[in-house]
Amino acid sequence: MTVPMPTQDPGSTRKVDGRALWSGGLATAIVAALIALVGILVCRWLFNVPILSPRKEGAWGNASTVGYTFAAAACALAAGCLLAACALIGVGLGAIIRHTAGAIAAAVGVIYLLGVFCLILPSPWNTRLGRFTVPLAAYQVVASHPLAGLLTPGLSMLVIIAWPAATLAAAAIVITRRDV
């Protein structure tokens, strides 16, 4: 049995609604901030656990409680950007390789295994090369205390942006030369 496919006007194109995309990311960031705030309040007020500040500070703690909620929101936004970057790396590799299984394996290798390989290198080389991999750059962006010897969080975000840009540029070159 065949399922009829919906027809689309050949002149029309599908567009991504950027407002819906960013509003979803903002909603996720707000939820992450509220979860962090409620978690701190539940631990300090309900269970009377002195988390993140001394017991004498009360249920709200000190000013770092607000900082943790903003940090949770920023990490949620950064994680969303990281997922988009990983998807674009996969798209670029898929366009280059033109084989689904090979593209999936290459994307996993580039995104995850390259970072693991850099971690097992000897001491000066693991941080020198590892700082340019996606996992370690992502860790630097979302970490509350970034590791010494790696790039700053701003430069690490540029590394995360550079990976999909490089794979998509390589895909564009390969497509224009191979598929003409």
Short description:
This protein is mainly α. It contains six helices and no strands. The chain starts with 17 loop residues before the first helix and ends with a helix.
Descriptive terms for the model:
about 180 residues, mainly alpha, about 0% strand, flat
Q: What does the average pLDDT come to?
A: 86
**Major sheet characteristics:** none
Number of strands: 0
Order of helices and strands: HHHHHH
Q: Could you explain how this protein is built, in words?
A:
With 180 residues, the chain is mostly helical. The chain is built from 6 helices and no strands. The protein is flat, with a radius of gyration of 22 Å. 18% of the residues are buried.
How are the SSEs placed, and which strands pair?
Layout: H1 18-46, H2 64-97, H3 100-119, H4 123-130, H5 134-142, H6 153-178
Helix pairs in contact: 1-2, 2-3, 2-6, 3-4, 5-6
